[in-house]
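Final paragraph of the annual report: two paired records, presented back to back.
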Amino acid sequence: MAIPWLLALKVIPWGDVIEHAPTVLKAARKLMDRQKAEPATHPSAASTMTELSEPVPSMGEIKNRLLAAQMQLNQQADMQAQLSQTLAELAEQNARLVGAVELLRLRTRVLLWVVAVLALGLAWVIWR
């Protein structure tokens, strides 16, 4: 069961992942900052055109529609802020994961060198 994971880890271009991790993190942070700074968007022209063809609603109905639209905009803004925060957290986790994988790769290389030196030392002791 461990062999497919090892094969998958060998196939992944870790150099590219490590190289692009800071870029992904910066982009996620920019997205999160932009979401905080961006004002609410205006309704599209298509929805305005369909509303113009309807009979003129009463003032109370307009008020109710406006409140409903405002609540929907607030919900969407909250959801978008949550999604951008989640994206930023995932990017940070990805950066930490890439750092941990790089550290494990380094430790594995050192361990392989140590094992090779010990094997050579053992072979030399046995040969002697």
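The closing record of the year follows.
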Amino acid sequence: MTTINPMNFRRREILAGAGVLALSAVTLPPRAAGASTLQDRRPPKADRRFTSKAVEAEIARVKAKIRDPELGWLFENCYPNTLDTTVKMGEVDGKPDAFVITGDINALWLRDSSAQLQTYVHLTPQDTDLRRLFCGLIQRQARCILIDPYANAYMEDPNARSSLPAISDKTQMKPGVAERKWEIDSLCYTMRLAHSYWTATKDKTPFDALWAKGAALAVATLREQQRKDGPGPYQFQRVDKSPTETLMFGGFGAPTRKVGLIHSGFRPSDDACLYPFLIPSNLFAVSALRMLAQVHNEARGDAAAAQDCAALAAEVETALRAYGQMDDGQGGKVWAFEVDGYGNAIFMDDANVPSLSGLPLLGAADRRDPLWQRTAALAWSQRNPYFFSGSAAQGIGGPHVGMDMIWPMSIITRALNSDDDATIRQCLTWLKGSHGGTGFMHESFHKDNPANYTRPWFSWANGLFGDLILDLERRKPHLLR
């Protein structure tokens, strides 16, 4: 039976008590007795939520190039996991609608749903059904933003009240909102998904007036959270023993000097920020706003909306250069993790992307940039309090599930950003050893014991692992052979 890390038990117990664990939503195969059996871990075909012929062909094509049976088995299990288990298709006003849950929590996160589909975007030109899924999610996300741009997670029914304990949070909980933790990256991920789909297909279908209204509100919200003219409308407090679940000073967060950076209440991990200027998310905002500007220009011919995006991106970029860096202790500069604009900063990294380590994955940094390289090297070291090294693996975790718990996402990120064959091989070895016999990636696992893991069903990590294998097939096929 899966061992639950004690520091994460409180969260999982609360979610289970609220009736939001959705493991019964699909038929999952029983846990593997061991990797040596390599039994198919996918749901039976009749129980799969969504099937794409292009994705199935991609699985067969790439798996045939993988010599290691266990690595091929993991790819075949993980890559289609989002489609197999998390998608619910429908229609709204005659247009496709897609509700995509995270896995074992029955709600749609803007960040997770975007990242979960991202791995399939290169196949959309080949598959009408897959394009319909992307259109459905892009439209669903626009409607979610119009319900409340400050929410991070949403209910399937826009009129339903949250089934999570978030319903008792001290904030403005609206119908349709599952949780209302303000995170910059939530809105940025929707911009990136729209751009990726447009770039791959040149299909204007999802980019209608509804989408444009949602996109405009997203940009306005990012600007509002620069807080130049006061604290803004967002407040959040939660009655919880963990300080990572709430914001200080009446729910507005720690004080800041208003310098043009965007405030974030919470990190991509859903943990509260110590200092409200979360640098990885501000860097992501710059790249995402420029992606959105391109969609406005090309898909809608809306030069004014594109200019609005570009202007905010330029302002935040200027502020990042002035306030987003710190000394590395060795005479150089690195990106800080969080700052307050007064000169105070913390250095750490969290496995959830956008992380400092994961910036190139989002187009928010260049892998060849010396500033980013110094930052990533420092994050993969003892300077980062959430870098863990054990007998099972090395990797980065975060406060969300506690000490000594490595997130496979951080190992995948390291491999995706590396050009060194030995580093990538080591990451693949760690990942193969992390699944605890299940054939899937997890939220986290103990640095000394992969059988001690959190979240048996976490589709974002599964999709990112699929991304890694596809990347290696294109970039370093000899490592798979």
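Residues 279-300 form the longest helix (22 residues). This concludes the annual technical report; the extension proposal builds directly on these records.
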